[in-house]
Request: fold
Amino acid sequence: MSLANGNTDNAQKKLGEVYVVTSGKGGVGKTTVTASLGASLALKGKRVLVIDADIGLRNLDVILGLESRVVFNLVDVAKRVCKPSQAIIKSKKSNNLYLLPASQTDDKDVVSEDEVKRVIDQYRREFNFILVDCPAGIEQGFKNAIAGADKALVVTNPEVASIRDADRVVGILHSRGIEPKLIVNRIDFDMVRRGDMLSVPDVQDILGIDLIGVVERDEDVIVAANTGDPVAFNPKSEAGQAFMRIARRMCGEEVPLKGYIHGQGFWGRLGRRLGVA
Amino acid sequence: MFAALKEKILGIKSSKAQAKGRLHLVLVQDRTGLSGDEMGTFKADLLAVLKRYFVIDDTGLDVQYQRESNSTTLVINSPVLRKKPAVVTPDRKAEPAPA
Reply:
């Protein structure tokens, strides 16, 4: 490809959408969500780059089963130690999915927000979607991860501590002009029915942001992490299917939420008519 | 529905209802950055200003942080009974209003 052709190609290519996957609280499923949505979008034929922004505590490589293939990382690209193309690793399961790993030895102050923005801009033309796996907390690592983002996926568990932290993160995202969408992860509908777990409408009411999807607690997710085979590549898994539904919504498709989530089933409606539920 | 029914009949609060209640309280504090005491002082200050211009229902003052899809706003609701007839000058010398 000559330089002239390369330039016109680039000018016509649509820039990829950059999502940051964040939560505030640690351990609620950000990395699983990032890996699985990346995989689902790739299965739909989109070119996806997932970026591990958890410098010093990298995990996205392990969840994707690519830990033995890491050569360069986000910090190397930011500091121009290598070319952007040298640092990304193709998934074993899809030609459309690539990983930019985090560095494991630095700490989060080693790069600045501007450096991270520049790194993301270097990849925007090559991918339809860029998903940034954000570290827990709201300090420099978080600020770096949201620096280049157009939109945010806020992951929360239907639990008090998780929701409280997610609320703080939503406030910060709003102040930065980044539109957040909610993913309720690890819900257990039996517990909801027993009155021992907050429901999806409860979480929506409290956080006040638009919902993009719900993922039930699923043992397949742990098995997938054990084997390094993202759950979204497993068509039999409930969680995998839930992630595919979210991916489809991210592509603009109208995918209805499952009925029992909103209490649209028979008992939910009856309860509301009796003024009880 | 059955959990809610059980709550109503037995008068016990489910753990999820407790969670909701606690979250609402703690989030007002987190969002405004004001502690319970500071919120009380803030409302008292607001009431004092409002009362210079309006006759209002003291008990009805409500302060909330509201979420839209891309913004968070402080919303202050105050039921107003009527405007106060007297005008207050900026340096706080109020002409007494006929009651």
